[in-house]
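Hello Y.,

Per our agreement to keep a running log of every chain we model this quarter, I'm adding this entry. I've kept the format consistent with earlier entries: sequence first, then predicted structure.
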Amino acid sequence: MPTSCFWLITIFLLGLCTGSFLNVVIYRLPRGESITLDRSHCPSCGKQLSWYDLIPVFSYLILLGKCRACHSRISLRYPLVELLTGIIFAVLFLYFGINAVLLKYLFLSALLVAVTFIDLEHYIIPNSLVITGLIGGVILNVAARDVGAVSALIGILVTSGFLLLIALVSKGGDGGRGYQVSCSDRTIFGLATCSPGPFFRGVCGRFIGDYPAVVRSQRKKRPTPLWAIYCYRDFYCFSIWC
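Predicted structure for the entry above:
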């Protein structure tokens, strides 16, 4: 029991730190800024942040959600992403324990968090994240050995091909961003989520939940963050089939 608690706390803290890095990705990647070379700074006044201003969640609470230098408000997204990633990491650890399969799903969850929040704000999915997901999915599948190469390939062709077809029919209006990331997560999930049950539940979910959201958005003449809608379905498929 003490060992399990130690690992649970460690994985949760790892999730908080990963969420802090994801905040950098979410903010900088759509703006074309480097995520590794430039030091963290306040987006309002540009002042570089010290290490004690970058402690996940706690720095936000200590600073009362304001920049130490200019006192401008810090977006609630920063602690939210950190806390959400920490909780997801902890839940995955409780399910898998410490092994290579856990590492694979930690990678996928971090990718989905970054993609979701970028899509919510900018309505885009950066190609660099898609490529990272594909490469990481292949490497981690080899290490985990829980999804075969054939299963992963069929998963990509079936699910991503279906979304690509929708994107072509709707001229990119729906599915245009989803099929890109589906290539990455189907590499990790494999054939399981293409089985008749989850596949057709996903199709029905699109007509029951996704399309009404798209129609309402089009009536108001504003874009829809579709991947934020799709993201919960990947975790649903995970909970059913893993």
